[in-house]
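Internal tracking record. Fields below are filled automatically when a chain is submitted to the structure queue. Please do not edit lines marked as system-generated. If the sequence contains nonstandard residues, flag them in the REMARKS field before resubmitting.
Queue: standard
Priority: normal
Entity type: single polypeptide chain
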Amino acid sequence: MCSLTESELEPELVRTPLDPSAIKVCKKCKEKPPCVNLRGSDTYCKTCFLTAVHHKFRATLGKHKAMRPGESVCIAYSGGGASTALLHLLKTGIESDHKKLLFKPVVLHVDEGAIFKLDPKQRIENIREKLDYIAAHFPFKVYVSTLEQSQRVVEYKGDGELDLEFEAERTNELYESIENIKESSAKEEFINCIRRHTILEGAEKINCAKIFTGENATKISIDLLTGVSLGKGGNLAQEVGFWDKRNAAITVLRPLRDVPAKELALYTVFHRLESFGEPTIGTGKESLFSIRKLTEDFLVGLQNDFPATLSTVFKTSDKLQAHQERMVEGNQSCVLCDGTLDTEVDQHNALQATQWSTIVSSRGKALDTDDLNPASLDFLDLTALKLTDPSCNPDPSNDECCGQGDGSCKTKKPLSKTDLMSLACYSCMRTVSNFKSMEKIPRKLHEQVQRTRNRNAMKNEIQDFLL
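SYSTEM-GENERATED OUTPUT FOLLOWS
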């Protein structure tokens, strides 16, 4: 048993706040007066603080040996403080550092106005404001795309002209697909998946095999606990680690993962950088709006009283490693997040119990009583039992196929929620289960599921003939 009593913990809980006047010099250089208090008695002068942030950034890149000379890297720029600080750190590393960065950054901004169905004029003004700032302060090429038209990437040359058009049909399609989701937590995860696919496709269009994102230590800590709560255990290492290799052709890197959000905010203030933070669907909402919002408020609130909270959670993410056997090329991946499928139920596990409970509660008396016989439960095929819903099966009399044997069949077959859930990982299954109607999912996702389903059906038909 723990020997600590409430009385022994009380001095730590009621600790008096730090008196700034009690510290006279910087903790690092021991000369200049401090102007930054990061945690507890860790106070630094402006010069030492900025040097420390820059060193963390360079050390993260150097430790992982992520980049090669002359390589192009796409910088995912949202307009917030973290991505703006990332651009400034890259500019400093290329122009001012003794050991200069030798790769070539290319900026990609993805507009998300379709989430709120903003007016096209307002979206153009918001985009131009951000891109004008980048063009005026950073010597990088700038491209822009939109969340609903990921295949269209436009270069901005800094002359005020922006050849970008919004298709009302695509905007309405994305907006309705988000409104088609019941829970707020599922909406946030769905938007994150759409955003990730848009950035990956944009990087491919501008010929970049690597992407830098502005995710910092604070966000990664929140993502870690949120991911555990949402059941992302199998793919969590990809979402919070330095490397994200879920896409075979393009790798996502997080060079700011060792820098907390507070330090990045102070960095932007000291360098007088301008940020253009846009609201999300969770902005201004209460803690119970979503699991992510609740986790964020919990960790940030706990950090105020216990300064080591975020660093402790963040260090846990360093110990996570991706399952190498599941990342082998050829293994099927989730159609939403590109993570490896972790929904196998060959052995008795919690997922199998959850699926069985769902089947019994949803089908009720319609379930064959022979299936409920204890003697037959060990030999029960849950996958086959899930797919016995008549609404999921296409017309068996229709054997026509227009494909070429590669899953390219265009035959129209009704797409059910079961079809999509069978191609999703455990965490994304929860998102799919919150879809109100399968008719309102994005067109690209519908085509991908249809193509994968056709390919799997073809594979099942010929697997007995393979050597």
